[in-house]
Amino acid sequence: MIAIAGLAVGLAFGLRSSPKSTPVGPREATVGRLKLPVPRGFNSYSMPVNQGPGSPMASHAITNFRVPAGMTLDRVMSRWAAADMKYVFVENHNHGAPSNVVALKLDLDQPYGSGCIGPCPPPSVRLHLPLNANQPWEQQYRADGKPSFRDGYFRFHHKLYSVEYWVGQDAPANDRAAVLDALRSIRPAS
Question: Which sequence spans correspond to the domains of the chain?
Answer without folding.
Answer: 23-188
